[in-house]
Design brief:
Methyltransferase, Methionine Synthase (B12-binding Domains), Chain A, domain 1, alpha/beta, 11% strand, single chain, 212 residues, binds CO-5-methoxybenzimidazolylcobamide
Length: 212
C-alpha cells in the first residue's frame, strides 16, 4: 500500500507509534513535507466524518488526535524556518470554550514557517486573555480559531473586547476553523477569513504588506 495511504489509515485507527514510524519513513523517502501533511489532514477528515455519523466516539477521536500529533511533531521542524528575520507578529489562540487545537497549531506552524513570530495563547482563550496578550506583545495580527458552532460567537466577543480596550484599530483580526465562513467573518467585523493554513499564511502576508 502507498505509504501516504498507510499514514492516513493508521491515523484513523489511532495507531500513534505506527503513524510516527511511517511519517519518519516518508521523510527518509524524501516525500514532500506538505504531501505528508496532506495525508494526516485527510485521515483526520475521515475521523471527523465517522464521528459526525456516530460510528466512533470521543475516545477514538482523542486517540486519532494523538496520532495526528505524532506525525505533526516530526514534520514541524521542516515547516518552521529557523533564524529568519520576522516579517510580522501574530497572537493566536482557540477561542473560549473550545478545546480543538490541531488546526490552530497547523496555522501556527505554517505562519512560523513563513517567517512570522507567533505567540500561541493555546486553547480556551478568553476575550480578556486576547486583550492582555495584545497589550503585552503589540502584534500585527490577532488570529482566532473555533471548531464548534457554539464557540464561534466568542470570536465576536473577543473583537468587542478589543474595541473596548481601544485596540481593535491597531491589529488585523483573522479568523478560521471548520464552521467559520467568509460571511460570518464579515458579520462579526473580522478583517480576514482563511479556510486553511496555506490560505492563512498568504492572506497574512498580503494584509501585513497593505498595513505597512
Ligand atoms: Co470535536 N467536534 N468535539 N474533538 N472534533 C468537531 C469539531 C465536530 C465538527 C465533530 C462532528 O460532529 N462531526 C463537532 C462540532 C459540531 C458543531 O460545531 N456543532 C465536535 C464536537 C461536538 C466535540 C465535542 C462537543 C464532543 C463531546 O464532548 N461530545 C467536544 C468539545 C470539546 C470542546 O472543545 N469544548 C469535542 C472534543 C474533541 C476532542 C478533544 C476529542 C478532539 C480535539 C483534540 C484537539 O484538537 N487537541 C476533537 C476532534 C479531533 C474533532 C474533529 C474530528 C477534527 C478536528 C480537527 O482537528 N481537524 C472535528 C470534526 C471536523 O472538523 N471534521 C470535531 C483537523 C484540522 C487540521 O482541521 O481544525 O478545521 P481544522 O483546521 C483547519 C482549518 O479549519 C483552518 O486551517 C486548519 C488547517 O488547514 N483553520 C484556520 C483552523 N483554525 C484557523 C485559524 C485561522 C485560519 C484558518 O486564522 C487564525
Amino acid at each position: 500500500m502507498d505509504i501516504l495511504q498507510e499514514i492516513s489509515d493508521n491515523l484513523q485507527k489511532g495507531q500513534v507509534s505506527k503513524v510516527g514510524i511511517l511519517v519518519k519513513q516518508a521523510l527518509e523517502d524524501k516525500i514532500d513535507v506538505k504531501t505528508i501533511l496532506g495525508s494526516l489532514i485527510e485521515g483526520m477528515g475521515v475521523v471527523g466524518r465517522r464521528f459526525r455519523d456516530g460510528e466512533i466516539y470521543v475516545p477514538e477521536v482523542l486517540i486519532a488526535a494523538r496520532a495526528m500529533y505524532a506525525g505533526l511533531d516530526l514534520i514541524r521542524p521542516l515547516l518552521v524556518q529557523t533564524g529568519a528575520t520576522y516579517i510580522g507578529k501574530v497572537v493566536i489562540g482557540t477561542v473560549k470554550g473550545d478545546l480543538h487545537d490541531i488546526g490552530k497549531n497547523l496555522v501556527k506552524m505554517m505562519m512560523e514557517g513563513a517567517g512570522f513570530e507567533v505567540i500561541d495563547l493555546g486553547r480556551d482563550v478568553s476575550p480578556e486573555k486576547f486583550v492582555e496578550a495584545v497589550k503585552a506583545n503589540q502584534p500585527d495580527i490577532v488570529g482566532m480559531s473555533a471548531l464548534i458552532t457554539t464557540t464561534m460567537v466568542n470570536m465576536k466577543d473577543t473583537i468587542e473586547a478589543l474595541k473596548r480596550a481601544n485596540l481593535r484599530d491597531k491589529v488585523i483580526v483573522m479568523v478560521g476553523g471548520a464552521p467559520v465562513t467568509e460571511r460570518f467573518a464579515a458579520e462579526i467585523g473580522a478583517d480576514s477569513y482563511a479556510k486553511d493554513a496555506d490560505t492563512a499564511v498568504a492572506k497574512a502576508k498580503a494584509l501585513i504588506s497593505n498595513k505597512r
